[in-house]
Amino acid sequence: MHFSKAQFAESKTARWKSLPNKKQLAILFFARFVDVVQNTSLQTYIYYQLQSFQPESPDTTISTKIGWVLGIFAAAQALTALIWARLADSKLFGRKRSLWIGLFGNCVSCVGIGVSKSFGQIACWRILAGTMNATGTIVTVMLAELVQEEELQPHAFLLLTLAQNSAALIGPESSHWEQIHERSKNGGEPPAPRQFDAKQSRICILYAISLFDAKLPECRVTYGGWFLCLVWASREQSLDRGIPDVLTSAKQVNVFHTMKTGEENASTRSGVWTKRMVLVLAAQASLDFHIAAFNHLWPVFLSTPSPATDNAQAQATKSRKVAGLGLSSSSVGFVIAMIGGIGLIGQITLYSRITIRFGSVKCYQWFSILAPIAYALAPILALFSAPTVSAANHQPATLWIGITVVLLFQVTGRVFSIPAAIVLLNSCVPHPSKLSTIHAIGMVVSSAFRTLGPISSGYIYSASSSVGNAILPWWTLSLVSLSGCVALFVIPAWCGEKAKIESAADSFEL
After folding, report:
1. What are the Cα distances from residue 232, in Å, to 85, 90, 177, 225, 477?
2. 55 CB neighbour count, 10 Å cutoff
3. Which of 64, 89, 100, 121 is the most exposed place for a label (fewest CB within 10 A)?
4. Which UniProt keywords apply (predicted)?
């Protein structure tokens, strides 16, 4: 049984309307939304912007550059996240000021990317945005401070993924409609590929900053200190002092195994590098890698023209070549928006019901299988695309059905995997004194593989496309995601069938 009767009844009574500090939560939701929306808009049009700089550049070169544009942002975030978390805990900066600086940096980078004239300029602006941005971490911490009731925290943290999916839905479509508006004003001439995106992102971010200043109170309790203890504490005793008492209380954390006093002392002395920890990190690395790589490969795959042309020889060899779908910019924006739409529908209608019934990590195990299937099917879509460039706006219905199936598999898998990955990492904490170490290690691994995903997939896509076939990156991605599935199912066998994982969201057995 995954839930006791009392726990199941408690989860049923925890509703959205029960959340406290609704105005502040709405502002944090909007902050996360505007932080993500500029990235989703970038994914829609970055291919066309880089192509406009050097129209003669092959698609393989553009793909590699896109991988760097997406990867360096995550790398810059990883290098500065601990510093920003430390500043957010300090009296000099605090939460609000750190959020303000991060969003203002995003605003400036949006303007810079909008007027950039080369790949190097875009890369510099992306590094600036990543260096100044720790919005995701700070918003998560502030949510934990504003909603301290454990039965309500799952709903509060779900706001983050709702914001991400909302941005994935609205960002590409709003950029597309803004482009149409700019074309009508310019007599049909297309605007600079990112000027319209820069304008809408700048307006949203500036509005969020004004809301922070007017409505969001500075939070008093420091939750970020535990996140930094790995870096700032030189001894294990310092780790105990670095964790706030309110965070290490049984009610607030509720992620540790029930242990006797002797077991607790032994666990405190033991290291964190257990077999379970290694397997959980392997699954986390696989998840972050393939999601980040998909976010890079998918827009490139949609935009890259099909190798087939109007001649009969190309038609005959099309079944043996896979490069891209050759969709128009408006179609690319629509397909990327589908990711957010499917994610929102899945979270609102399915996520709570299924996880309450089966448990988050059990869902993680089974729904993670959908990702390798989606990646294996993705290159097959090229066989259904329009054979000529002139038909790019009139793709066959079979292609759209295939795109929908691939996205249903991929997005449904990530909807259930991302929240459960946090729960599974929490299960590796043997004692409160190890909390900061576990989460800091998880953050480093996650950031590293979110950086490697786009860069490595860009190189593989470029190399395989140069020989006229782009199947290799997708099937490589399928194997990587499959390795994460294997790690998830090996955990019970290697770490004991009775290993229990508890969290504020659910309680279940592997």
Report:
1. 12, 14, 48, 9, 36
2. 6
3. 121
4. Membrane, Transmembrane, Transmembrane helix, Transport
Chain position carrying tokens 């319209």: 196
Q: How many CA atoms lie within 13 A of 192 on its CB side?
A: 14
CA distance 194 to 45: 7
Q: Cβ distance 307 to 132 under 8 Å?
A: no
CA distance 107 to 119: 19
The one-letter amino acid code at 435 reads L
C-alpha 94/C-alpha 503 separation (Å) is 28
pTM for the predicted model, two decimal places: 0.69
- CA 404 to each of CA 99, 196, 212, 409: distance values in angstroms, whole numbers, following the listed order: 36, 28, 38, 9
- CATH architecture for the domain at 5-254+278-306+322-509: Up-down Bundle (1.20)
Q: What is the mean pLDDT of residues 88-100?
A: 78
Q: What confidence tens digit (pLDDT) does each residue in 60-87 have? A: 788 888 888 888 888 888 788 777 777 8
Q: Which helix (H) or strand (E) holds 508?
A: strand 507-509
Helix (H, G, I), strand (E, B) or coil at 507: strand
- The helix or strand, by DSSP H or E, that contains position 502, with its residue range, turns out to be strand 500-502
Residues 437, 287, 43, 163: is their CA dihedral positive or negative? negative
Q: Give the contacts of 172 (CB within 8 A, at least 6 positions apart).
A: 40, 41, 43, 44, 332, 333, 334, 336, 337
> 376-415 b/e with 16+ CB inside 10 Å = b?
bbbbebbebbbebeeebeebeeebbebbeebbebbbbbbb
Region 394-419: mean pLDDT is: 89
Count of Cβ atoms closer than 10 Å to residue 460 Cβ: 21
Token pair recorded at residue 310: 């109007």
Helix (H) or strand (E) holding 373: helix 370-377
Break the chain into its structural domains and give their ranges: 5-254+278-306+322-509
Structure tokens at 503: 């969290």
How many angstroms separate the Cα of 68 from the Cα of each of 40, 72, 115, 471?
A: 16, 6, 19, 21
439 band by pLDDT with thresholds 50, 70 and 90: low
CA 448 to chain centre: 13
d(CA 284, CA 373): 18
Condensed to tens digits (0 to 9), the pLDDT of residues 143-176 reads: 777 877 766 766 777 787 788 888 888 877 666 5
User: What residues form DSSP beta bridges with 322?
Assistant: 469
- Pairing outcome for strands 507-509 and 500-502: antiparallel
